[in-house]
Amino acid sequence: MTMQSTLAASRAALLALLRAVPAVGVVHPCERYAQSEQAFRQAYLYTHADPAADAFAAEPHLRGWYIRRTETREVTANGRILNEHTWTVRGYMAFRDAIESELIFDELVERMRDAVRVDGSLGLPGLLGASVAEERGVQVAGAGPVLFAGVLCHSALLEVKTRNWAEWRKS
User: Fold this and answer.
1) What is the pLDDT along the chain (171 residues), one digit of tens a residue?
2) Residue 13 gets which letter from DSSP?
3) Taking phi first (over 0 means left), then psi (-120 to 50 degrees means alpha), and beta for anything else, what does residue 149 get?
4) Can you spell out the DSSP letters for 96-165?
5) What's the distance, Cα to Cα, between the start and end of the chain in Å?
6) Model pTM?
7) What is the pLDDT of residues 141-152, one digit of tens each?
8) Quick one: 125 exposed, middle or buried, by C-beta within 10 A (0-12, 13-18, 19+)?
């Protein structure tokens, strides 16, 4: 039996954690593409299970995220291998000025940050140093309006680092 890589394990943990955030939308384990704009839009189309979740109610709209590993650093600590993976989580949500959708989107981002902050499955905060100056949790690297799948959307670029011990692999 082959052991799951730290990359795959971290991706699975981050995916499960983000998918559990209420009204998060569609969360993909990687960036999605499609042959047509309609099919691409469909990959990010979301309808609340609970129409009372926010002002979008039961209206289908774009609300989705994807996860990408952007960097991995491997260090030896105490004779063991530690992998630190840097992840980008990119999200989109349809822009609706009449319901102040930017405020809904900002709160959604904060719920995602809260979820990661209190979860121990990503190597946080246990494997991070005790200094208050050290980066912890999800960082908002950028946010603003974009055209996505032909629709004006809010977008956010989030970054998070996960840490875990790697097992030695023998060929």
Assistant:
1) 455 678 888 899 999 999 999 999 999 999 999 999 999 999 999 999 999 999 999 999 999 999 999 999 988 877 888 888 999 999 999 999 999 999 999 999 999 999 998 877 776 544 444 555 566 789 999 999 999 999 999 999 999 998 888 766 555
2) H
3) left
4) -GGGTHHHHHHHHHHHHHHHHHH-STTSTTTTS-S-TTS--S-EEEEEEEEEETTEEEEEEEEEEEEEEE
5) 13
6) 0.88
7) 999 999 999 999
8) middle
Query: What would the two tokens of residue 27 be?
Result: 């969360």
Task: Classify 43 as helix, strand or coil.
Answer: coil
Tokens of 87: 């992840």
C-alpha pair distances (Å), 88 with each of 58, 111, 129, 147, 160: 29, 17, 22, 19, 7
**Dist. CA 80–CA 82, nearest whole Å:** 6
Per residue, the 3-state secondary structure of 52-81, as one string, reads CCCCCCCCCEEEEEEEEEEEEEEEEECCEE
Of 162, 49, 150, nearest to 94 by C-alpha is: 150
**Which value, in Å, is the radius of gyration of the alpha carbons in the chain?**
18
Q: Give the Cα separation of 5 and 12 in Å (integer).
A: 11
